[in-house]
Specification:
The protein has six helices and eleven strands. By secondary structure, it is α+β, with helices and mostly antiparallel strands. The chain has an eight-stranded antiparallel barrel with strand order 2-3-4-5-10-9-8-7. It is globular.
């Protein structure tokens, strides 16, 4: 075989290998030859940013500051971990369920809450303000002869929302539905009049009938809590969108 023939064969083999390489590697490219903008720009994926912001809020401490979108910077006055508790029987000792909710008390009367969306529901984030209300324990609990909405909800095994309207003209014209009740033990970092370290709080979570707002009632009973508890009017809140800074 002469030199020209050998060179020709080598050229053909090299061309074939080149085509195979291009075909093999083109399978991994995005459609329309568009490069993944996350890789090119170095920006973290949206899911990662959401997880990071939520984790930062979950572990935030008193003394830090939070900036909500379009608002001034707010100091964190208290960071509260709320451990859900349960009893097997009324005389059994309290035990933790493993569900931990969160409350951040911000300057300016703003609260950020992470609580279950409903009985046995996934956690949701809420932005809340405290309503000027007297104790509503008797209203929610009622009596054996005339049970209140929270007792009715408990008696139906927390399976059916219970509609009601608030007394004292607190939210006129609004019908609420109880969707969760339970008990929290509080661990507090910082200072809050509504929730203090070691408080046991009984909570009632409601949603607006035909709307998106939530209502959280924290019942602080004498002998079990030093804080005042309170009634909180809340709206859903997305940390990755609504928080522009956390220091």
């Amino acid at each position: 075989m002469d030199g020209i023939s050998v060179i020709g064969i080598l050229i053909i083999l090299a061309a074939g290998l080149g085509i195979a390489y291009v075909v093999r590697n083109s399978k991994s490219l995005p459609k329309n030859n568009q490069v993944n903008p996350t890789i090119e720009t170095g920006e973290e994926p949206i899911a990662m940013r959401v997880a990071d912001t939520r984790e930062q809020l979950r572990t935030a401490a008193s003394g830090q500051t939070v900036t909500l979108l379009g608002e001034p910077e707010r100091a964190i006055k208290a960071s509260v971990d709320l451990f859900e508790m349960f009893q097997q029987t009324p005389k059994s000792p309290w035990s933790k369920t493993g569900v931990v909710s969160k409350a951040l008390v911000l300057a300016g009367g703003v609260w950020i809450l992470k609580v279950p969306s409903q009985e046995a529901g996934k956690p949701i984030w809420l932005r809340a303000t405290l309503l000027p209300a007297l104790s509503l324990m008797k209203f929610y609990k009622g009596s054996d002869e005339k049970p209140g909405p929270a007792r009715i909800f408990r008696n139906n095994d927390q399976s059916e929302p219970v509609p009601y309207t608030l007394p004292q003209d607190l939210t006129p014209g609004v019908t609420w539905e109880i969707i969760d009740i339970g008990t929290f033990d509080a661990k507090v970092n910082g200072s809050s009049e509504e929730i203090e370290q070691g408080d046991r709080l009984y909570f009632v979570t409601s949603r607006e009938q035909g709307g998106k707002r939530r209502l959280i009632y924290l019942d602080a009973r004498k002998g079990e809590a030093k804080g005042s508890g309170g009634l909180f009017l809340a709206e859903e809140f997305e940390p990755s969108v609504d928080v522009s800074g956390l220091l």
